[in-house]
Each structure stands twice: as structure tokens, then as C-alpha cells.
Amino acid sequence: MKSNFQCLNCGKCCNSYYAQINITIGDIIRISDFMKKPISYILKNFIGINAFGDPENPEKFSYEFGINMPCALRKDEKCSVYQARPLNCRLFPYWVLVHASKSGSKDFIDDSYKCMSGINLNEKELKKYDNYVKVIGEALMEEGEFTDKILDDIQIMRSVDLQHNQDYKKIAEKYKDVQKPEDFKKLEEEKIRLAKEIFSELDDHQISLIEEKAKNPDLVEKIKNNTEKIQDAEKILD
Ligand code: SF4
Ligand code: SF4
Fold first, then answer.
1. 139-184 pLDDT tens trace
2. Count of domains observed in the chain
3. What are phi and psi of 62, to 5 degrees?
4. Is the minimum distance from the CB of 10 to ligand 1 under 6 angstroms?
5. Which residue range(s) make up the domain with 88?
6. Contact 110, 83 (CB under 8 A)
């Protein structure tokens, strides 16, 4: 039984189709600064629109900013922007381990992630991870709000209802009697593919609007403050 987490650098969390990684405007600015490339370059090359199903409304999907998977920022078997990696990348798998430890339930630990399997955090590690998750989680919430505001301001499509979509009806009919988990997985995959056919990429006009918004001095200042907090939080894990 292990008492702490160690990344085995398998790349699974950077490559999995299912582990979609949402990204904030702060993440994009930090990666842009780190790579010394314009925001438009980051948006064009690494970021897409991910579709997320609504568990209570099977025909509804929300669209969120996310890293295209497999993540093209993983190069030579490592994260090429590690110091500027997105907040969601920082949180994984710490939030899962904290949640598992606090609830006493391992149900949501996916054993196919070998780095999470068999960990039993002691009190000291739990406190450390909990503090880290709190700081990163707060930054994520705050930056998520900035990101949503920008997307709303420039009228980016945020959701879709496939109820009347003919292709969706065919998929729903094809899988109407499924029972096996693998079939549910295939169904979800087909639905997400369909939602992404409708919207999965920003066009050049949208990219230039986001780039313009990201230059707002208030936003720049807030992201700068958050970046300092994030850097301090990283020391918690040392
Ligand atoms: S899945 Fe776990 S071991 Fe593999 S790269 Fe991600 S954090 Fe590291
Ligand atoms: S940004 Fe880095 S840590 Fe995040 S998915 Fe890409 S390679 Fe992995």
C-alpha cells in the first residue's frame, strides 16, 4: 500500500479521449507566456471545443474550451509546458485521491490509472494534497468564470440540444436496448462525436476576439495574481 502519489509518466491522462481537460483563459495566457507564442497560436494548435453530455438530459450537450486529445503539448514523453500546465492537469489525480480519502470510498478511483491504484493517504499527505487542491480549485473556479464571460461576450455557442437531430435519433434507436457498460460507452462516444460535428473548432474571427479580450488590463492583473498563487501552491507538494 502506497501513502503518496507518484507520477509514472505513462501519459494516459494526457491522451485519454474520455479525460477531457477543460482549460481557462488564464491557462491559455500562462502557456502563451511560457512558450513565447501568441494566444492565437495556442488556440489554433492545441485548444478545441469539447462536448460534455448532461447526465439528466441525454440529448443535451454543453460546449467547453478544452485541450484537444491526445494532447499535442506532450512531447518526448513529457509535458512540454509543465510549469505552465493547465489547472485541470495540476488537479489530477490529487482531487480524486483527496475525495477518495475523505469519503472513505474508492469507488471513483479508476484502477486502470496505475498511479492512483492502491494509495492510502496518511494524515500528513492528505492535508498537503487537500491544501493544494483548495488553492488550485479556487483559481480554477475564478478563471472558469472569466472564461465563461469571454465566451458569452463574443457569443460562442455554449450548448446544443440534439433532440430533433436526425442522426441523434438514429443513434438513440440503435442503442435503445443496450445493457452492457461497453455499449453505453460506445453510445456516449457516438453522441459526443455528433455534438462535436456541430461545433468543435474556433474560427479565425473568434480567435482574434478572444485574443483581444485576453489583453484587458484587469484580466491580465487577475491572472497574474492567480499565477503567483498557483506557483506558491506547487511548493506545498515539495
Ligand atoms: S495517468 Fe498518472 S502516471 Fe500517467 S501521466 Fe497521468 S498522472 Fe502520471
Ligand atoms: S498540458 Fe501537459 S499535463 Fe496537460 S494534458 Fe497536455 S501534456 Fe498532459
1. 999 999 999 999 999 999 999 999 899 999 998 888 888 888 888 8
2. 1
3. -105, 150
4. yes
5. 12-236
6. no
